[in-house]
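[step 3/7] fold_predict: job queued, chain A
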Amino acid sequence: MTDYSSIIDHEHYKSKKRPHMSLHSRAAQFAPFAALTGLDDAVNETGRLTSEKLILSEDTENDIDRTLRYALLTHKNVTITYFLPDPLKQGGKYMTISGIIYKVDMNEEVVIMNDGSAILLYSITDVTLEN
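[step 4/7] structure written:
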């Protein structure tokens, strides 16, 4: 063991060239380092599954059209299944919404529900009347 009596009363050295480093900055030197920033996000995005949009037959499209018209006239509850494209990669997912159809806007090609949500006509894959 060394005796520190010769230096114990000396003032702490301060550089004349560089400013004193704060404790926060000093602690940052020892923070964990992520060499591959964003890798986890990229791996998760690649692993996220999407579905392909189904191509509907003309008969199915006619059935959907007929059911939409009937539901609009009778104000019956419907369950609509539609395809929502993924903004980041090819494909998308199928969503389901239930409610009463408020309006079908042929100019904008959307179905507007009573809650204000809008569904693109060409994305609808199924319409079911609820009892």
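[step 5/7] annotate
Strands lie at 77-85, 92-105, 110-113, 118-120, 124-129.
The first helix runs from residue 23 to 28.
exit 0
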